[in-house]
Amino acid sequence: MSQQPLVTLQNVGKTFGPVTVIKDVTVSVYAGKVQVLLGENGAGKSTLIKMMAGVYQPDAGRIVVDGKTVTLPTTRAAEELGIATIHQELNLVPTMSIAENVMLGRMPTRHGMVDRSALRNRARAALNLIGLDIDVDTLVGELGIARQQLVEIAKALSINARILILDEPTAALTRHETESLFAVMADLRSRGVGMLFISHHLDEIAEVGDTVTVLRDGEFVAEVPASTPEDELVKLMVGRSIEDQYPRNTGAGTQPAGTQPAGILAVEHLSSTGRFSDITFTVRAGEVLGIAGLVGAGRTELIRAIAGADHYDSGTVTVRGQALPKGNIQAAIKAGIGHVPEDRKGQGLVTGASVNDNLGYATLASTARLGLADFAGQRSRAQAVATKLRIRMHTIDQAVGALSGGNQQKAVFGRWIIAASTVLLLDEPTRGVDVGAKVEIYELMNAITAAGGAIVMVSSELPEILGMSDRILVMRDGKLAGELTTAEATQDAVMTLAARDVDEKN
Amino acid sequence: MSTTTQPATRRGFNYKKFLANNGALVGLVVLCIALFIATPDFLTGQNLLNIGIQVSTVAVLAFGMTFVIVAGGIDLSVGAVAALSAMVSSWLFVSAGLPGWLALVGGLVAGLLAGVVNGLANAYGKLPSFIATLAMLSVARGLTLVISDGRPIKTPAEVSFLGGNLGPVPMPIVVLLVAALVASFLLNRTVIGRSMYAVGGNAEAARLSGLPVKRILVTVFALAGLFAALAGLLLAGRLDSAQPQAAAGYELDAIAAVVIGGASLSGGLGKISGTFVGALVLVVIRNGLNLLNVTSFWQQVVIGLVIALAVGVDVLRRKTRSS
Ligand SMILES: Nc1ncnc2c1ncn2[C@@H]1O[C@H](COP(=O)(O)OP(=O)(O)OP(=O)(O)O)[C@@H](O)[C@H]1O
Ligand SMILES: [Mg+2]
Fold it and tell me: Which parts pass through the membrane (chain B) (predicted)?
């Protein structure tokens, strides 16, 4: 196969200050093919594609487009050569409408003024491609993370690129939206568009990919066909095999009758107009409760209300028999609640502050003496938890925003480990986390429940819900659609409950 | 090929990084050397004491401003609040007949209260800090005129003492150093100080981590008000009277000092030491231009250019940090 690649990164290298992030890597994208990049968090995948997208300049090697060496000083230059990119971290303007965001920088004009109807129509068309049915005049800031991701995808699709780079586009999506995206990718592929695809969901690789380039610590490890078995891929990627992707003896939290442990978290008739209504459930000590549902089912809103991040209209939240005041985060934390929000960059982290500081925010006041921050103690706790979670970083004083996506996620998680929270509310806890690190997070969840803690986990990844939950609640349109035991739970059973309405409408 | 380019880029990086982290300090040193060469009047004991006295007002105002800017806000009212506080103090002494020390404390409380109002309007009233403090600027200046009827009022001896000398050392310099230590301690060591960086960096993340964001914001503006009051008393003490138009426009000097000192107006960044250097840069430039007989009209032009340069360095700093 001597077809000429659309674009090649040839022996490229990249360093940030003293740290070498990419070393001598070559990767090509061919017309009508999907090249997959695979590697652990921090392996350098995003850094690599940013060189192709004109965000970073390679320090070594060259970029070849259509057989000619080029430089891509700006993202604009890359776009002009037909390279469009969906970045891992969203780049949207929250105060502008969906339509304006999709067409940003390419606003259609008439007589020198923005042509609003053309703007809407073109944005509408791009959103239809991926099946996002929503008013294009809605402000992006009002959307949840999954819908923002879909807007970002629509933005890249509307460029009509020859080369499309997708950096973890499916991390925030449920299976439903992922399938729409894959349908679009299949269509693009048949029209000769070359794609570079990154995902930590191994099952997606065989589904959409052609070949896989595996990176480890910024170096090329192997190039294999996308049909390579998953455990083979894992071994290439982490250098060892992973025995059990979901290391939980599910249902173990439900102990023999008679010794039923007490409910730690009890939610009763919780309602919030327009978000969710009449939600009742309890979580027992040692239990992981999974909450499944489609994007927009109200799962995040429910979690936020329990955590005190938002107000609600009626109902009660009780932790160990003690009722929590509405909308009071400090009271919730004091009662042992820890909340990992869905959007780590917007809600989880102060990206400009250090890893050390970020790990310590929740315990800043509780560890202080006479109002003075406990720097030494804070540092050693942060260091310990960073080691425990294997947060990959240069130093603990590094800005958390410079860590790879998965490592940022671990930092949010680590804050609550330091706070010794016993009721964890996890909203997409492994979004963008690699297989190895996922298992580490799951082990942590096991350790917390084994010590008598309780976990509520919202996740759009069905295998994760099925593999890690002792019990599963399914939400649909803001209501509980049903509850499943581990024995009853299958992908189909969950999806039927989650999407019944959608099917009825169609 | 890579062997020839690497040392060059490495040297370039370090140089950039040094300049980026210490831009204001380097600028200050260069400035002083230039003035030393340009005029014999610069490096005299008397002139240096003058600089110290002049910098005290600006720097104390700017310390308060540093809290606000680190927490992601802005305080346009500090100049007016400084004038109001001094006037309240003198009024309490002259018209209300309070003992001098109590009048001094009353002035500080007035500044603190003005700051608390700013903070409440911003945190609970959801007014952007720019608007809330713009309103306070007008209200505080107006109240100053109302209280004084547009005329200066003499200060109690306790306040005049702040403008006097302690042995050979001018009191403003002593107050300045103490204020710098206190401000730096608050910002670096205390829970509330560390929280300011989090609030300025990402208020939502800070809130979800359980930090009391609203209370922090109120504290931040209260501190700015308190430091403004102190600056106002220093100024009045030097003149032995509270002036209704005192410290007009000083808020811009304070903001400039903070920004020259390396804080970012988008929040989450800034240091008291940087602000101190920033204030010195402003005052030394003014002092030097005076010594060189440059008119005050041209001085304004030069100061403007310096601010633009400092923000340019700020942009450069962020670039070197992100790549
Ligand atoms: N701007 C930067 N400054 C310093 N270091 C950086 C910067 N960007 C990335 N890095 C470092 O480079 C390494 C690779 O990061 P990159 O984001 O490319 O990883 P990734 O493979 O995309 O990981 P993930 O799967 O978590 O998204 C990480 O160790 C990260 O800390
Ligand atoms: Mg990445």
Answer: 18-39, 51-69, 76-94, 100-120, 127-147, 167-187, 216-235, 272-291, 297-316
B239: closest CA among B87, B70, B68, B18?
A: B87
Q: Can you give the pLDDT at residue A416?
A: 95
Residue spans per domain, chain B: 42-307
Which of A92-106, A151-165, A177-191, A490-504 is the least confident region? A490-504
Option in B194, B202, B323 nearest A364 (CB) = B194
Ligand 1 atom nearest to A434, measured from its CA: 25
pLDDT on residue A252: 54
Measured between beta carbons, which residues in chain A are less than 8 angstroms from residue B13? 17
Q: In chain A, what are the domains?
A: 7-238 (3.40.50.300), 247-255+262-336+422-506 (3.40.50.300), 343-421 (no CATH)
Ligand 1 proximity of A403 Cβ (cutoff 6 Å)? yes
Given CATH 3.30.300, say whether it is the number of domain B42-307: no
Q: Choose between B254 and B15: higher pLDDT.
A: B254
Interface of A with B in 184-223 (CB under 8 A): none
**A56 CA from centroid of ligand 2 (Å):** 14
Whether residue A44 has its Cβ less than 6 Å from ligand 1: yes
- Beta strands A163-167; A83-86: pairing state: parallel
Confidence check: pLDDT of A363 > 50: yes
Nearest CA distance, A173 vs chain B (angstrom): 22
Residue B246 in this model has a pLDDT that exceeds 50: yes
Matching residue, tokens 């009890």? A266
Length of chain B: 323
Q: Over the stretch A253-306, which tens digit does the pLDDT of each residue have? A: 444 444 566 789 999 999 999 999 999 999 999 999 999 998 888 999 999 999
What values do phi and psi take at A80, rounded to 5? -65, -25
ipTM over 0.90: no
Chain segment A57-80, per-residue pLDDT in tens: 999 999 999 999 999 999 889 988
d(CA A339, CA A355): 18
* Proportion of chain A in helix, strand, coil states, percent, rounded to 5: 35, 25, 40
- CB-closest option in B193, B210, B268 to A353: B268
Nearest CB to B190: which of A60, A372, A399? A372
Chain centroid to CA B77: how far? Answer: 12
Ligand 1 atom with least separation from CA of A394: 31
